[in-house]
Amino acid sequence: MKFFKECILMLLSLLMVMGQRHSRIIRNDFVESSPDGAYKWAIQTDENIFHEQRGYINGDAGLLVEGQYQYTAPDGQVINVLYRADENGFHAEGAHIPTPPPIPPAIQRALDYLATLPPPTDH
């Protein structure tokens, strides 16, 4: 739990140094972790910066963290990011995040074919 409190303090520090003026915290909800390791928190500033996160132990897979944050970019675009962190890494979604181009059909057919082959036995 100490790690998460340190993360919150780091986030608060980051919010304080963003921009020319200091943001004022207008919402700060923090729910202490439960005995099973679950937690949640949310924070919002007067400059419409918002971040919320929740986490829990996901069986043998370990800690699962889900959350979102939102702010207004200098160009006026509202940036909203949904994220999830689990045993497979960090995954973020947002309209502003670039996506890779589609896989060309010939390469996809080759990948599909390779997936049907048995695994090699010569380690």
Automatic annotation (TrEMBL):
Keywords: Cuticle, Signal. It comes from the Eukaryota. One of its GO terms (cellular component) is chitin-based extracellular matrix. Residues 1-19 form the signal peptide. The keyword Ion transport does not apply. Coiled coil: none annotated. One of its GO terms (molecular function) is structural constituent of chitin-based larval cuticle. The keyword Signal applies. InterPro entries: CHIT_BIND_RR_consensus, Cuticle_Struct_Prot, Insect_cuticle. It holds the Pfam family Chitin_bind_4. This is Uncharacterized protein. It comes from Manduca sexta.
